[in-house]
Amino acid sequence: xxxxxxxxxxxxxxxxxxxxxxxxxxxxxxxxxxxxxxxxxxxxxxxxxxxxxxxxxxxxxxxxxxxxxxxxxxxxxxxxxxxxxxxxxxxxxxxxxxxxxxxxxxxxxxxxxxxxxxxxxxxxxxxxxxxxxxxxxxxxxxxxxxxxxxxxxxxxxxxxxxxxxxxxxxxxxxxxxxxxxxxxxxxxxxxxxxxxxxxxxxxxxxxxxxxxxxxxxxxxxxxxxxxxxxxxxxxxxxxxxxxxxxxxxxxxxxxxxxxxxxxxxxxxxxxxxxxxxxxxxxxxxxxxxxxxxxxxxxxxxxx
Length: 303
Ligand SMILES: Nc1ncnc2c1ncn2[C@@H]1O[C@H](COP(=O)(O)OP(=O)(O)OP(=O)(O)O)[C@@H](O)[C@H]1O
Fold this sequence. Notes:
Layout: E1 6-15, E2 18-28, E3 33-38, H1 44-52, E4 59-64, H2 73-76, E5 80-83, H3 95-105, H4 112-118, H5 134-146, E6 152-156, H6 164-179, E7 183-187, H7 191-197, E8 200-205, E9 208-213, H8 215-221, E10 224-230, E11 245-250, E12 253-260, H9 262-274, E13 281-286, H10 289-297
Parallel strand pairs: 3-7, 3-8, 5-6, 6-7
Antiparallel strand pairs: 1-2, 1-4, 8-9, 10-12, 10-13, 11-12
The structure holds adenosine-5'-triphosphate.
Residues 15, 18, 20, 38, 40-46 line the site of adenosine-5'-triphosphate.
């Protein structure tokens, strides 16, 4: 018996001849937020569906709140909040009716009016689901996922199609869930969303885990990526700083790339000083999660 909210071990998902998930392992500790990142078709939704109990894995083991998501489905469902990528509700019912219906399934639901207000849905309370915009439907789907006070929430691209205000409200709600000890497994294409919300990020590529770690670990491991130097224009070090690469991006603005650390940065400054240049500005930039993500997923993303 595990105390983790989600434990996935060597999970495989196949659709006929297509293997969407090739043996993925991950853990969501209780009260933590894990974000799955990956290109379209990387296998994120397939993995999520296995955890939600909507699809049986073709290999491996999954435990959700210590239970089997397929065999213990009925016991598990009231403890989970699930936000699907789209649909899943009654198109002819109004937003208010739908949310109150889901609230009625829960033993201790959240206050429906509070959720309608927080997610900007109050004026759509009497609007039928099918008449809501994509972003409004997303907000209602999030409210449905949260209304039952779940212990664990699965969010598949929760802010896709939302406007900036709704996205920020969603982020605040997820942060509040975490503060209340709720566990969250979410997928996203938004790197800033993952960086802001996630305790741990799992980057998937072609059904495999390409990298995993906290956002800080993933970006720190990548090191300093770029040194920007401002000095007199027209200074050309040639290969004297090799293997570092120096490019004058605009007159007097130099970009230095390569294996940059304290020693090599000192070497670069030494060269500028040696040719009598006056360095007026020096800036290092660490890789962002976006840089790491692109480096891991770009070239080999599509087979
Ligand atoms: N029902 C299905 N039948 C056949 N193939 C499927 C099915 N669902 C998904 N796939 C395939 O499995 C692979 C993984 O799809 P999945 O939806 O899990 O990816 P994803 O990472 O969630 O993508 P996205 O970011 O576009 O939502 C893709 O190649 C997809 O075409």
